[in-house]
């Protein structure tokens, strides 16, 4: 699709529809969380400290990518978020690897079955389509199945308002350069528009977004080396959601989306390559019927995902195709005012194929499925004690049956107010299809088993103007899956791998206009295993509502030293050497400004990232963004 046509279309839509409708003011959000039980639960009755990033929070962070926003959450590290736009991303929760983190979009699990770790590529999702985010850390396999060993990131996409018809247009542009560079050319473009509304019993939402970025090479040249060529990144995202509510008890939600991404990349650390590129095309469809009855609700979430990827690397093409099907039927039944039971069964099917000059993986070979019945009980007493406990039986077509469970008690002392919590959870993570069937794989790999214990508290004080929470955790991994840099094979790491840490968050409403948010994360890994996870990380954010139309925000982030293992290839080239390195700590200062030019109709924003222009290393041998500026405009019609 021609990106210039999309940009012109967005402007045309803006002026054609100007004055059609007013933006509906959002209703105040209730203090509820979803992830803990799959249904709305009052936050004070939840046994977890769940981080919510609301629509209002996202407005204050305009100009930042999804990866950068997630990386400010305690316990979350998204490696690659400070590199050039389009760099592959490593998602780590509590020091866990990408295959231990489950990502949900509108409650539906998303994955690429042809990927190395059976994980989801966050580069496919533009932040402009997102309404809100919830992050729950700790093993959650009881409710969400294999892949939720260290936590769940649940992303809710935007949806229709109650107007008959409404629209929005957004455009922004910015610089894209490394530190100490003085070229302020505009190299980052992002634009899109949406149409949504409600007509009687039908609601609808449709959006189209486009991103184009250049200006930075993925690989970083060594000192005194000729500058590398710039690597481009482009993405187009389309989404359609339709809801049908025939009566108060029954509803249907349909969705379909198409995402396309093209990304140029280099040959690794300090190694340029002007020819390498990769493409990804994703098709997702699904429907979620819900039936509400006197004492509960029955939900069926179904989805199908098709992913086509191609890589042109070192003069040769590789083609990947994957298909995933998910069906999760669950029922909430309210026994009385204190006890709720959630029962369900989930079916997942994954298959992949790969074709290249070096290997072929046929679809008939690389596939597996899982059928998991599960049950969870939630008890909320009238004297402050709460209990969430459940179990799931993973029935895997290759690995047989595996039982996981969780026990999560908490106690609220309303007079203080203080909530103390504890949990013990287990998880089962099957190897990916790539780890089993590729030329680097091993069919004898065992599934990874995890157990996590956590203890913490959440308190509010100063007339609820301030909140403080702190959680300590210990996770033990058995049969963790590693990659041998000498033999180039996946293997099960011997013994028990431990990760421990503490996550502390504090918020303070200085006044009606000023708020302070801060968090600190300590994470220690017994076996680092090439995970670029900092031992210490801290974030501080100051938000100030200067007037009814002007909002200012400033943030600070500290990331400590990180340990890295990497290989070099001295002569002869067939004798690689394993090396270790320490990537030094770095600090970032960012600022955002948002101003309503026309109340509830038009606003502008400006964002400055890495204001101090710090030159640091996020990933060894790869470029890191320096000081960059972005500005944009959003119009609601």
UniProtKB/TrEMBL annotation:
<dbReference type="GO" id="GO:0044718">
    <property type="term" value="P:siderophore transmembrane transport"/>
</dbReference>
<keyword id="KW-0472">Membrane</keyword>
<feature type="signal peptide">
    <location>
        <begin position="1"/>
        <end position="21"/>
    </location>
</feature>
<dbReference type="Pfam" id="PF07715">
    <property type="entry name" value="Plug"/>
</dbReference>
<feature type="domain" description="TonB-dependent receptor plug">
    <location>
        <begin position="44"/>
        <end position="152"/>
    </location>
</feature>
<keyword id="KW-0675">Receptor</keyword>
<keyword id="KW-0813">Transport</keyword>
<dbReference type="InterPro" id="IPR039426">
    <property type="entry name" value="TonB-dep_rcpt-like"/>
</dbReference>
<dbReference type="InterPro" id="IPR037066">
    <property type="entry name" value="Plug_dom_sf"/>
</dbReference>
<keyword id="KW-0812">Transmembrane</keyword>
<feature type="domain" description="TonB-dependent receptor-like beta-barrel">
    <location>
        <begin position="234"/>
        <end position="611"/>
    </location>
</feature>
<keyword id="KW-0798">TonB box</keyword>
<protein>
    <submittedName>
        <fullName>TonB-dependent receptor</fullName>
    </submittedName>
</protein>
<dbReference type="InterPro" id="IPR036942">
    <property type="entry name" value="Beta-barrel_TonB_sf"/>
</dbReference>
<dbReference type="InterPro" id="IPR000531">
    <property type="entry name" value="Beta-barrel_TonB"/>
</dbReference>
<dbReference type="GO" id="GO:0009279">
    <property type="term" value="C:cell outer membrane"/>
</dbReference>
<comment type="similarity">
    <text>Belongs to the TonB-dependent receptor family.</text>
</comment>
<keyword id="KW-1134">Transmembrane beta strand</keyword>
<keyword id="KW-0998">Cell outer membrane</keyword>
<keyword id="KW-0732">Signal</keyword>
<dbReference type="GO" id="GO:0015344">
    <property type="term" value="F:siderophore uptake transmembrane transporter activity"/>
</dbReference>
<dbReference type="InterPro" id="IPR012910">
    <property type="entry name" value="Plug_dom"/>
</dbReference>
<dbReference type="Pfam" id="PF00593">
    <property type="entry name" value="TonB_dep_Rec_b-barrel"/>
</dbReference>
């Amino acid at each position: 699709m021609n990106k210039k046509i999309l940009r012109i279309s967005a402007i045309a839509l803006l002026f054609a529809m100007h004055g059609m409708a007013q933006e509906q003011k959002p209703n105040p959000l209730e203090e509820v969380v979803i992830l803990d039980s799959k249904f709305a639960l009052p936050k004070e009755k939840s046994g977890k400290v769940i981080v919510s990033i609301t629509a209002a929070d996202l407005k204050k962070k305009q100009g930042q990518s999804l990866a950068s926003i997630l990386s400010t959450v305690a316990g979350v590290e998204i490696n690659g978020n400070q590199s050039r736009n389009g760099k592959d991303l490593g998602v780590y929760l509590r020091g866990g690897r990408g295959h231990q983190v489950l990502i949900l979009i509108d409650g539906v699990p998303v994955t690429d079955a042809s990927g190395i770790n059976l994980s989801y590529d966050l580069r496919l999702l533009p932040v402009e389509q997102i309404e809100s985010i919830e992050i729950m850390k700790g093993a959650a396999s009881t409710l969400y199945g294999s892949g939720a060993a260290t936590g769940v990131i649940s992303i809710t996409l935007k949806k229709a308002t109650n107007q008959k018809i409404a629209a929005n247009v957004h455009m922004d542009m910015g610089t894209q350069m490394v530190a100490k560079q003085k070229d302020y050319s505009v190299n980052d473009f992002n634009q899109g528009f949406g149409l949504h509304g409600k007509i009687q019993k039908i609601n609808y939402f449709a959006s189209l977004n486009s991103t184009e970025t250049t200006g930075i090479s993925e690989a970083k040249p060594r000192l005194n080396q000729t500058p590398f060529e710039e690597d481009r990144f482009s993405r187009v995202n389309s989404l359609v959601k339709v809801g049908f509510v025939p009566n108060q008890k029954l509803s249907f939600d349909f969705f379909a989306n198409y995402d396309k991404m093209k990304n140029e990349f280099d040959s690794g650390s300090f190694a340029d390559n002007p020819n390498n590129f990769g493409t990804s095309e994703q098709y997702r469809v699904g429907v979620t019927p819900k039936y509400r009855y006197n004492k509960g609700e029955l939900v069926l979430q179904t989805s199908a995902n098709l992913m086509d990827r191609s890589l042109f690397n070192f003069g040769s093409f590789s083609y990947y195709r994957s298909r995933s099907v998910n069906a999760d039927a669950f029922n909430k039944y309210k026994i009385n005012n204190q006890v709720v039971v959630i029962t369900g069964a989930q079916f997942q099917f994954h298959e992949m194929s790969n074709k290249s000059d070096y290997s072929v993986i046929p679809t008939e070979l690389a596939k597996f499925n899982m059928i998991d019945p599960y049950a969870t009980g939630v008890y909320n007493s009238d004297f402050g004690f709460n209990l969430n406990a459940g179990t799931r039986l993973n029935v895997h077509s290759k690995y047989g049956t595996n039982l996981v469970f969780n026990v999560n008690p908490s106690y609220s002392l309303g007079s203080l107010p203080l909530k103390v919590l504890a949990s013990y959870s287990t998880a089962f993570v099957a190897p990916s299809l790539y780890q089993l069937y590729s030329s680097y794989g091993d069919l004898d790999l065992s599934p990874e088993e995890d157990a996590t214990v956590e203890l913490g508290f959440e308190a509010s004080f100063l007339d609820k103007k301030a909140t403080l929470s702190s959680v300590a955790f210990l996770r033990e991994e058995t049969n963790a899956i590693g990659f041998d840099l000498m033999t180039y094979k996946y293997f099960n790491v011997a013994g028990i791998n431990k990760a421990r840490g503490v996550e502390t968050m504090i918020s303070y409403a200085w006044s009606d206009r000023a708020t302070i948010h801060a968090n600190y994360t300590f994470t220690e890994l017994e076996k680092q295993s090439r995970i670029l996870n900092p031992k210490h990380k801290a974030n501080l954010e100051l938000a100030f509502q200067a007037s009814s139309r002007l909002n200012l925000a400033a943030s600070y982030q500290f990331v400590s030293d990180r340990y890295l293992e990497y290989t070099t290839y001295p002569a002869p080239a067939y004798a690689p050497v394993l090396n270790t390195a320490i990537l030094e700590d770095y600090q970032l200062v960012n600022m955002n400004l948002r101003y309503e030019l026309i109340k509830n109709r038009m606003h502008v924003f400006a964002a400055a990232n890495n204001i101090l222009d710090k030159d640091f290393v996020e990933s060894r041998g790869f470029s890191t963004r320096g000081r960059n500026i972005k500005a944009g405009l959003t119009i609601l019609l």
